[in-house]
Amino acid sequence: MQLIRIILVASFNHRFVKYTIITTVFFILFTTMGWGQQKKIVKLKPIKEKSSFHALVKLDTLQTMVELKSLIHNVQYELRYASKHNFTRKRLYPRNTNTTYLRLNPALALAKVAEDLKEKGLGIKIWDAYRPYRTTVRFWELIHDERFVANPSKGSGHNRGTSVDLTLVDLRTGKELAMPTPYDDFSTAAFHGATNIDDVRIRNRLLLRTTMEKFGFVALETEWWHYSWPGASAYEVLDLSFTALRSMIQ
Ligand SMILES: [Zn+2]
Predict the structure, then answer these.
(1) 13-28 pLDDT, tens per residue?
(2) How many Å lie between the centroid of ligand 1 and the Cα of residue 150?
(3) What's the pTM value of the predicted model, to 2 decimals?
(4) pLDDT tens column, 165-209
(5) CATH fold for domain 44-249
(6) Where are the domains of the chain?
(7) Would you say 221 and 192 are in contact if contact means Cβ atoms under 8 Å apart?
C-alpha cells in the first residue's frame, strides 16, 4: 500500500500526469452531464386509456374527436408520418393509417372551410391533424430542437387534436395548388411573410390563410401549412393510437 501511495503521489506531482488526470476528470464530467441533459425528456401525462377518454367526453362533449372524412366528404389525406416521406425519413404512424382526427369544434370549422373552397372548385389535403403524444416524444428524441418540433414538456396542438397541417387542391384534377414550399420545409420561405416567391404561390398561400381565418383558425407565422384552433389548453393531450380512436368512433 505504501508503495502504491508513493507512486500515486509521485505521479501527481509530475506536471504532465497531473494535468492529464484533471483534464480527463473534467472531460468525463462534462460529457456525462451534457449527455444526461440531452436524453432527459420531461413528459406530460396524456390520456392513454380508452376508458379515461370516454369519461372525459362524457363530462365535456367538446372533447369529442371527429374523423374528418365523416364530416368532409371530398377531403384528401396524405398522412406523411404514415410513410417515410417526411422530414425525419422515418415512418412514425402505423403503415396504411388512413384516418385522422380533430376535436369537434375545429372539425366543424374545417368542414365550413371545405364548403367555402368548394364554391371555388377547390378542396383540402391533410398532411397531419391529431398526432398521438408518443409521436411528439419520438420527434423530440430524433430532432431535439424547439424551432422544428414541439417540446414534449408542453405537448402540441396536434396532440390535443386542435391543429392541422394542410394545403389546397384543385377538386377537378385532385392536384395540389402551387405553394411557397413543400410540407415541413423549415426554411424562411415557409414563413407567411416570405415575399421572394412568385405571385401565384403567394396568392394560394393567402387564400388558404384567409379561408382558415374566416372560420376561426389561427395561422402560424413560420409554417404556411399549420393552423390551430384557439384555446387549445382547454383540450387534454391524448396518447390514443389511431386504432384505438377508430374502434371508439367508427
Ligand atoms: Zn403542424
Answers:
(1) 666 656 665 555 555 5
(2) 10
(3) 0.83
(4) 999 999 999 999 999 999 999 899 999 999 999 999 999 999 999
(5) Muramoyl-pentapeptide Carboxypeptidase; domain 2 (3.30.1380)
(6) 2-35, 44-249
(7) yes
